[in-house]
Amino acid sequence: MTQSAAFKDHFSVQAEDYSVYRPEYPAELYAWLSSLCSERALAWDCATGNGQAAVALTNHFSYVIGTDASESQIYRAMIYPRVEYEVALAHQSPLADHSADLITVAQALHWFDFAPFFAEVQRVAKANGVLAVWCYELHQISPAVDAVIQRYYDDIIGRCWPPERRHIEQAYSQIEFPFEPIKAPSCTMTKQWTFKHLVGYLGTWSATQQYQQQHGSDPRLQILDELQTAWGEEDTKTVTWPVTVKTFRINPTAD
C-alpha cells in the first residue's frame, strides 16, 4: 500500500491471506467518526486494502469510495452495496474536489508521501470535513506467546521491516499533520483467535514476506514449535491490539 510514485508493493503477494487474517476495527470507532461529520454523503477510505473499513463505513455514510495502489488488493476487496473501489495512489485519487465528508486511512499512512497526500486531502475534503488515520502495534495474547512473537519480530525478521515501519512503532507521533487536531477516544481491537489464525496473521506481515523472498524459506518455521508450546492446549485465545487514532478537521484553505 505504499503510495509513492515508485510504488513499493509490500502486500499484493499475500493479498488473499490479508483479507482472511487481518483483524477488524471496532464498530464504535466508525460511529464516533461519523458523529464528527455534519454530512454523511461520501467517505473516502484511502489504501483500503481488503475493504474492511470501506464496508464498515456504509453503516454511517451513503456512499464510500475505497482506493488502493495495489491492484491485487482491490481485486480481492469485499464487494458490498454502496462501495466503489478504484486502483489509485493516495495523492492521485479519482475523487472530485471538496466531495468527501470523511477521509480514513487505516494502518497505511506510514507508506505515503505525506506532503502530496495532505494536499490531496485538502483538495478532496469538504469544508470542515474530517481526516482520520489510525495504526495498531503488536498484539497482546499472553506473556509466553508475546515473548515468542517479540523475538520473531525483532531477531528473526527485524532486518526485513521496511524503514517506514518506524512510524507504527512511534504510534505516528513523529508525523506532522497540517490540520486542526480533534482529540480521539482510546481504542482497542479484540479478537478470539485459534493458533492457526495467529500463524496466518504473521504471514501477512511485510517483513515475513520480505524474509521469504530473500532467503527462500518461511521464517515462521523457526518459531512454530516454541509458539505452539507457548500457546498451550486452548483452542482459542483473546487477542488485543492497542490502536492509535489521530483525527483532524480539514478547514478551507485561505484564498
Structural class comes to: alpha/beta
Q: Could you name the CATH homologous superfamily of the domain at 15-139 and 163-188 and 242-250?
A: Vaccinia Virus protein VP39
**Order of SSEs:** HHEHEHEEHEHHEEHHHE
- Specify the helix fraction band: 25-40%
Give the low-confidence spans: 1-15
The DSSP helix count reads 10
Characterize the quaternary organization of these chains. single chain
Named at the architecture level, the CATH assignment of the domain at 15-139 and 163-188 and 242-250 is: 3-Layer(aba) Sandwich
Largest sheet: 8 strands, mixed
Report strand %.
Answer: 15-25%
- Alpha carbon gyration radius: 18 Å
What do these coordinates show?
With 255 residues, the protein is α/β, with parallel strands linked by helices. It has a domain at 15-139 and 163-188 and 242-250: Vaccinia Virus protein VP39 (Rossmann fold, 3-Layer(aba) Sandwich), CATH 3.40.50.150. 33% of the residues lie in helices and 24% in strands. The protein has 10 helices and 8 strands. It has helices at residues 15-21, 27-35, 52-57, 71-75, 114-124, 143-156, 165-169, 195-203, 206-215, 224-231; strands at 42-46, 63-68, 83-87, 100-106, 125-136, 180-182, 187-194, 236-250. Strands 1, 2, 3, 4, 5, 6, 7 and 8 form an 8-stranded mixed β-sheet that branches. Helix 5 (114-124) links the parallel strand 4 and strand 5. Helix 6 (143-156) packs antiparallel against helix 10. The longest helix is centred in the middle third of the chain and has 14 residues, at 143-156. The chain is globular and about 55 Å long. Residues 1-15 have low confidence and may be disordered.
